[in-house]
Amino acid sequence: MVVRPHLHWFRMLLAWRGSVLPQLLPRLFLIFVISLAAMAVHAHWLPITVNLSTTPFSLVGIALAVFLGFRNNASYDRYWEARKLWGQLLNVARGLTRQALTLPRNAVPADELHEFTQVLGALPHALRHQLRRTDARKDLAARLPAPLLNRVMASRYQPTILVLWLGEWVQRRAQSGALDTVGVLAFDRNLTELTNLIGGCERIANTPLPFAYSVMIHRTVYFFCAALPFGLVESIGNFTPVFAVFVAYTFMAHEAIAAQIEEPFGTEDNDLALNAMSATIEDAVRDLLGQPSLANGKAERDFILD
């Protein structure tokens, strides 16, 4: 994800990284070539004549803008829900750490508290890798003891195994008499909330927008942009390439942005910064125990500042 400070209006015009313009340049060049062909046809440089009225383009453009608005709203809703789920994950992780520190009747040994925070801090990394379908072994090996690491890596749903282990930790504290029934229920509510958050992320990752809906808008946008120069050439003549490319950029950019944020857990410039968010959650857990941060430059590369 690209996060920038507030830019001057002129620098905003020249912003490159984080915009969808680089991937649109070949398509916009194609529209430019089609515009030149429309001008050639209109000036009878070619032995054919294709002159269209702007009226149908106005009607189709309005309808297309409405469809793109629905598509962008649907994509952004997925993006924003994913961000809220990860924000809640931070809150629940802090709550569990606070409970581990304050609810037991007897002081919990430091090594057991450290193990609890290690597992809780590893959970967002495991979830990130599951959502991105990448290998979590390297990140988890640096945070988990070998027996638990092998248990987690043998599972298809690695974050839920870590939640299970946290529940087993609470069970051991209850069996030793360090936690009463009220304390166990308090832990259980947060562990259940962790399970709900993981399930919410999995739902977003495993349920894309209907393909037929996306492909219909995609085809309509590109057909509209390819035909537009033939509707403009009669009225604006030599300025056809300029306005055709500008209108094409507007429609194509909206469609491309919607396609990016539709999958918020990816690694494109406008997806969620899961690397940095995972490091933030882990750091928040360690901070409650007075432990130093493990965040480093590599974990922060999701955020690119100009």
TrEMBL record:
Keyword Transcription annotated? no
The principal localisation class reads: membrane
Which Pfam families does this UniProt record tie to the protein? Bestrophin_2 (PF25539)
Compartment(s) where it occurs, according to its Swiss-Prot or TrEMBL record? Cell membrane
Q: How does it sit in the membrane?
A: Multi-pass membrane protein
TM region(s), chain numbering: 53-70
Q: Which UniProt keywords apply?
A: Cell membrane, Ion transport, Membrane, Transmembrane, Transmembrane helix, Transport
User: So what family is this one in?
Assistant: Belongs to the anion channel-forming bestrophin (TC 1.A.46) family.
Name of the protein in question:
Bestrophin
Origin species, per record, is Ralstonia condita
Q: What lineage is this protein's organism placed in?
A: Bacteria, Pseudomonadati, Pseudomonadota, Betaproteobacteria, Burkholderiales
